[in-house]
Automatic annotation (TrEMBL):
Residues 1-13 have a biased composition (Polar residues). This is Calcineurin-like phosphoesterase domain-containing protein. Residues 86-339 form the Calcineurin-like phosphoesterase domain. PANTHER family: SHEWANELLA-LIKE PROTEIN PHOSPHATASE 1. Transmembrane segments: none annotated.
Amino acid sequence: MRLNPKSQASSNLRRIIAPPPPQPMTSFYLNSLLPLPPSHPQKLLEPSSSSSSSSLLSISNSNEAALKPIVINGDPPTFVSAPSCRIIAVGDLHGDLSKTRDSLQIAGVLSSDGKDHWIGEDTVVVQVGDILDRGEDEIAILSLLRLLDEQAKANGGAVFQVNGNHETMNVEGDFRYVDTRAFDECIDFLDYLEDYAQDWDKAFKNWIFESRQWKEDRRNSQTYWDQWNIVKRQKGVIARSVLFRPGGRLACELARHGVVLRVNNWVFCHGGLLPHHVAYGVERINREVSTWMKSSSDEEDSPEMPFIATRGYDSVVSKILRDSLEAVGAKAMVVGHTPQLSGVNCEYGCGIWRVDVGMSSGVLDSRPEVLEIRGDKARVIRSNRDRLHELQVADYI
């Protein structure tokens, strides 16, 4: 049974979402840092699994076979050891819940019965950022990924996210690319949270199931004049600011994720990784941005926003790519950010894979594609002529 929306004045918004207790997480948008003095990047060694910031996930299968552990190091996760695990990379989603589900279904990790069950066993999924902006179901997508991560971990898998520039922009208060309907989702989400009091985790994970009904109710109550309702538009901006400002509920959710993630010998980031980023310290980058996202802007000692600029894969050339990969101890890099008209593809001897296909209806509305990685090999999985159950699978490269 769904919970009925409550009409509340915008003055109650701040009361509804008090900043959550500090979480042991950190993150940053790695596509570009303030240039550092020239220095030779140090080879990053795999952190010891005994580190205080590491965790171990393991589960035995139905036959009680040997454990298959996933070891996670860093706050937020920065280095992941997932031996023998299949890895799926998913590109930019930009608020399109339908395409998000399609992507996860062709990857074989999400059930197609509409119940949003994890069926990927010990698969590791990495979404490379830009969940926000240009679409209407941003919070629902964040909710779905958190729910699936919980289910995946119970089966020996995991779901990771890497923050992109649009996540950072929203925490900064830059709402230029926000869909009008996404402002409505923020209003609905704040009203919905009232019924859960302080049980944030339960409310957040349940939003994926509740959001559809809230959206339908909103559409049924809309009138022709709503598009010119300035008060309603202002309420949407206020609601989004409360949720995404530094220290806000959704800013703290984003702070659970980094901007660079290495899984086995593959590195994932939104737009690119340069040698001076590695020299600065990948864990340090993740930690500093996460701290900024979690710190209330009302605090006198709140950190300043880290310098961030947007650069895509086209800023990475062959030699720089090799230097970056060597420094971070990776075989290849997987990035999003720049829509690929030709679909998922690779360059520089497949040292860099580009997985943003502009699938969101707010971008190119293209058919979903994902990258599947097994060991040192990768291949593209795409739906055949927009029919999800007929897949085109390339050979491993």
